[in-house]
Amino acid sequence: MAYVSLETPGKVARTTPPNFIRKVRPAHLRHLLSARAIDIDDVDEFCEAAQAYECGLAPASVSAGKTVALLFFQPSTRTRIGFEAATVALGCHSIGMEDMTASRSNARTAESLEDCAAVISRLCDILVVRHHENGAADRMAAKSQVPVINAGDGWNEHPTQALIDIFAMRRGLGTIAGRSIAFGGDPRGRTVRSLVQLLRFEAPKEIVFCPPPHHDVPADVLSAVGENQIRCRIIADIEHALCDCDAIMMAPYDMSDIGEPAASGYVSPQTTPDTHVITAEKIERTGSKALLYHPLPRQDEIDPSCDDLPNAMYFEQVRLSKFMRMAVLDRALAAK
Amino acid sequence: MAYVSLETPGKVARTTPPNFIRKVRPAHLRHLLSARAIDIDDVDEFCEAAQAYECGLAPASVSAGKTVALLFFQPSTRTRIGFEAATVALGCHSIGMEDMTASRSNARTAESLEDCAAVISRLCDILVVRHHENGAADRMAAKSQVPVINAGDGWNEHPTQALIDIFAMRRGLGTIAGRSIAFGGDPRGRTVRSLVQLLRFEAPKEIVFCPPPHHDVPADVLSAVGENQIRCRIIADIEHALCDCDAIMMAPYDMSDIGEPAASGYVSPQTTPDTHVITAEKIERTGSKALLYHPLPRQDEIDPSCDDLPNAMYFEQVRLSKFMRMAVLDRALAAK
Amino acid sequence: MAYVSLETPGKVARTTPPNFIRKVRPAHLRHLLSARAIDIDDVDEFCEAAQAYECGLAPASVSAGKTVALLFFQPSTRTRIGFEAATVALGCHSIGMEDMTASRSNARTAESLEDCAAVISRLCDILVVRHHENGAADRMAAKSQVPVINAGDGWNEHPTQALIDIFAMRRGLGTIAGRSIAFGGDPRGRTVRSLVQLLRFEAPKEIVFCPPPHHDVPADVLSAVGENQIRCRIIADIEHALCDCDAIMMAPYDMSDIGEPAASGYVSPQTTPDTHVITAEKIERTGSKALLYHPLPRQDEIDPSCDDLPNAMYFEQVRLSKFMRMAVLDRALAAK
């Protein structure tokens, strides 16, 4: 991608610690299925492109006029609308289903995800997929004629959200290198798994988890942190993160419903204990400068009293998301 | 707005009776939440713009390329599709959800309307909102970064429908001034409340209500009529309106479901007593020249036998709606 | 239509047998409601236009900028997304509802199909309708101000699918004339009824049905075949079709749910007996060269083991569908 050269405010030096594994970049990165397949050059390139779009400095997209299929088998507001907004901003067209569970590509007529991919990929230039099953995007990619973007698959991954999070953290912190990054709420979510993969390259000082007592941090998440020699701590009260950390990525306290089909009716518990809630009172009392991020939607883990504080970055994170999604779509479409 | 100058057929003189309250127009009318915030100059301006769009005489819209988010938390056909058609005709792009109750911005994950507005307003240029709760659009406007259009909130208001109604009545009657305007059906609906606000400026001779016996005309609707010294009558049989009135704005006989969530399953009674039904037979027998309007959908209160009579204005009203919605969107987008 | 002249690979000579009824072509073919209203010249013209779109040789569409309303009262993936993709490719805009059962044009508020057509046709340039009731598209056409395309009505017809099928069969077989064409699966479906109408003009050697034992081929389908003196056979095992036929149009084994409202919850049986299933093993064992078509979605009647065989035409059929839908939309919009 030949984007206009820009000094990215939050861009870290590309000289990463020698123990970071540098993957050989495939000639045509067609799909974006997992944050594991993204390396530091990718992240830098995506962030530079996103910033160019934000500033209106990006060249005319090669993607203009292409067709983006949005296939959401699981409800979504911001991811779906964010991809739609990015599609429009690139001069592309979105087609698809906002609720694929109402289409014939579901259990009722038993069409497989593979057939759905084979079919729809013959009618568009890219597939953006959200599904409640782990590995759904991989299964569709195996049969798709066009690139597939994983917009969240069950408990597994949400790589575009992770790119957005990195972009927004670099913006807020200047650099993530040497900083202490906390995760509040359910550590089992797909956004945590994807973000930790990308944080490996950012050389943070430490990663701190503040999980609910009944949900352990998944072993693969802990090992991703450990294998990159990033310090890792578990804390029991989010107030410790407010005192000690530079940024806190919050999530709902219990996301047990994330792997449920839309029609299951299962609703996760919705009351977060005070030890895992951030309020303006706690921020003011502790004098915390920690920046607050959240993939949203929130439940009660960040009190609305925080919204007007300078700590609150979660709505700015949404604004930035459009530019990152433009970068993701444009690169995948250009690869076609 | 510098629209091409046009003689609007149904336009009333701007010299309104001195007892009409003339509000100071805000510098930037960002939101369109209530018909109460619209004055006679607004109405004239909207009608002129709508007519310019109808005639193809409007200048290239300043809105072209902007993004309109359609957020429908309550089912809709014509309002939703009408706004989509207007969006397309302005060269804008629509994004959003046709059924927001299926998105994550709902009770299932407990995202507030405020957060929904904060989020989506960072991804688009305007929000168009329908919701089953009174005041939903106001709540979203409080947190939105962009203008909010109320496309119907519970029992409260539906201001764009009222502008459409005025545009269509001026077109059909030449002028509303001095005319007798009747309301048939449930007088508690949001379209009645909004339209009565705008009728204040049009100087009708009288406003006649023909409500079901069990549903009173709301006090605030009656007082809006009264404070502008418009004569008001209640009648018990719609046939009296056919005989006496120049235009009849019909509505379903019982709209008790309008304040219900989409999933409630509540269905209003659907059989209208003969005293509140308009048929071709009644029109022919009475020789009525009354023009028939309806925000639609109708149930059985206007019999399809009326559809081909010259009295029937309700489908023409739909055709005109597109141009008024273009005017509303364009003005709100220009204000941004 | 003045399309670029092209040699259509699968085009049959226009000199059809003298016993084929040639209908006088209406000056303005506004609606596309039934394959019965399409004659051989129409089919040729549609196929030539579709091929011109495929090759990028079609002139700039007269339809660009027009608005296509997609009204799907019954769930759909490929038809809905196919029409969206075709709309975008023509430079048109799609509006509408992916699930009209969630709109107010449904039983809940009792709006008739006629009113829905009267309303929405005043806001767009063409209606594309799918519905679970036979005759729904005809009812809407009676009140529409713009052309109506039947995208599947209950058990009745699906004429655009039939055009796609002919286009794909001509492509695969070179010509349908003199070939043996089989139908596997439920013979009561709307795609069968529509396709048999169009096959009348193609002069196949014979039409072979392999229906489930409990569902007869509908009498009107058999008589359409018979009145054109096409040989007709019924077989009990799809393996006979693999041995004897040039092309097999498969369908699910039991489509009893096709006439059900979306909310009915009725699910057809989903296990197909081995006598009605095509597998790679059967193809290899019989050495069959029969080309496999399917309107999709499939259930288990074509095993995925067939997908990579040269016999499999069903995904290519999807790719071709976009160009045929462009041809259908463009002709209907040009007729307006």
The rough form of chain A would be described as globular
> Could you give the order of the helices and strands of chain A?
HEHEHEHEHEHEHEHEHEH
Gap between N and C termini of chain A: 13 Å
Largest interface: A-B, 32 and 27 residues
Strand content of chain A: 5-15%
CA gyration radius of chain A, whole angstroms: 19 Å
Helix fraction of chain A by DSSP (H/I, runs of at least 4): 25-40%
Query: How many β-strands of chain A, per DSSP?
Result: 9
Query: Poorly predicted ranges of chain A (pLDDT <50, ≥5 residues)?
Result: 1-28, 102-108
Give the spatial strand order of the biggest sheet of chain A: 7-6-5-8-9
Helix vs. strand class of chain A: alpha/beta
Described by strand count, sense and barrel closure, the largest sheet of chain A is: 5 strands, parallel
The quaternary organization reads as homotrimer
List the helices and strands and how they pair.
Three copies of one chain form a homotrimer.
Chain A lengths: L39 H16 L11 E6 L5 H12 L3 E5 L15 H8 L5 E6 L4 H8 L4 E6 L5 H15 L6 E5 L5 H10 L6 E5 L8 H8 L4 E4 L3 H7 L2 E3 L30 H7 L4 E3 L20 H21 L2
Parallel strand pairs in A: 1-2, 1-3, 3-4, 5-6, 5-8, 6-7, 8-9
Helix pairs in contact in A: 1-10, 2-10, 3-4, 5-6, 5-10, 6-7
Description:
The first copy, chain A, has 336 residues and is an alpha/beta fold. The first copy, chain A, is 33% helix and 13% strand. Chain A has helices at 40-55, 78-89, 113-120, 136-143, 159-173, 190-199, 219-226, 238-244, 280-286, 314-334; strands spanning 67-72, 93-97, 126-131, 148-153, 180-184, 206-210, 231-234, 247-249, 291-293. In chain A, the strands form two sheets. Chain A has a five-stranded parallel β-sheet, sandwiched between helices. A four-stranded parallel β-sheet of chain A has the order 2-1-3-4, sandwiched between helices. In chain A, helix 1 packs across helix 10, helix 5 (159-173) packs across helix 6 (190-199) and helix 6 runs parallel beside helix 7. The radius of gyration of chain A is 19 Å and the shape is globular. Chain A starts with 39 loop residues before the first helix and ends with a helix. Residues 1-28 and 102-108 of chain A have low confidence and may be disordered. The interface between A and B is medium-sized, with 32 and 27 residues.
